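Still learning. Any example?
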Amino acid sequence: MWKGRFQQASSDLLTTYSESVSFDWRLFRHDIQGSIAHAAALKKAGILTAGELTKITVGLRRIGREIAAGKFAFDPALEDIHMNIEAELTRRIGATGAKLHTARSRNDQIALDLRLYLRDEVKTLVGLVRDLQKALVELATRHEKDVMPGYTHLQRAQPVLIAHHLLAYVEMLARDRGRLEDCAERFDECPLGSGAIAGSTIVLNREAVARDLGFSRVTQNSMDAVADRDFACELLSAIAIIGMHLSRLSEDVILWSSEEFAFMELSDRHTTGSSLMPQKKNPDIAELTRGKTGRLYGNLLGLLTTMKGLPLTYNRDMQEDKEAIFDSVDTARAALEIFAEMLRAARFRTAATARATGDANLMATDLADRLVLGGVPFRQAHEIIGRLVGLAAKKGVALNALSPEDFLEASPVLDRKTVKAVFSVTTGLAARRATGAPSPKNVSRRLAHWKGQLQ
């Protein structure tokens, strides 16, 4: 590439240290797609003849098929996917191949390839997020009427419907989809034609190239176009947030499937055993996903750190973007796919969730609310019910096992009929009618909403 300037061949160590084709070969389809569009622009500018354009196009497509079939031999001495393809094209079709790089730099070439690659990957990720939402909705539908305790501080708090808990993750994933789709807006600029830093004196029709490649616009500053990796940082951020949501769901699944909770049964196909302990059934998918989230965070922070001190424009440091991008995309794809499959095969142990929801302390807040409706200020009501909870603990009985006299002594509002109504989980859930609350009617409506949205 630069032998005209240098008198000595590159050190073997330099070649090994600086090559990127061992990982950026994955961009071959997008590199060929961009090169064909660039060649068409060169033809329109009079740099290539119609025959030369045909030779380049046919040659590039043949190389692409060979790479896809695993029959192409990459040369690390040529550094990257761009030069490997171009060098092989030139070897096959001669001087015409050497014309392809006219008015183009590897700087704008890689900026283009990454955008094309991520544009495709975002579509895939959006589809996988949607499929995980569907799996959650399917599981929620199977348990639409079933109850479980809701938790704060990992302590039993208030009763909810299992479906309501699962739909919380559907809402999170909807925001994840929105972030991914918003990222795609930032990919939608074609940098090709920006050259190494300042464009070229050979002026091509950039707008036509952008249309050929499916972009809605072109970049407006050649320096920014080749130095920008904002779009990649933004995507890694969106993927890291997906990882955070999957990790929280993983933690729930791990707890639910433990013998201590015994709320969920995972299928044999989605669990593993122990090499020593015959009884074990381990939720490895959830544990691995929780662990891989750290890698997603690391990739984001790594790229941000790489970019933070770089002067304009391109610096070789930026080669470090690709492995982080590829790893995050691959990790997110795998986690989303296997999580959806795991949840479709999972089931809740509703007898266990019902027993846990029968904990009378879960209705303590409802008792306080009844006092408020009877004219007692909430802070005073909170204190009264707190004393009753303490009394039940002291007596070693459940809250609803206190005597009618205990309740009446605490407050005249707490007569036998009122107390009995409060300790009905069904009545308590039905009363939670505010938008977003877990009444059966609300949950049913939200399930219907998501089924329609996810069709």
In short: The chain has a mean pLDDT of 96. The chain has 20 helices and four strands. The two ends are 51 Å apart (CA to CA).
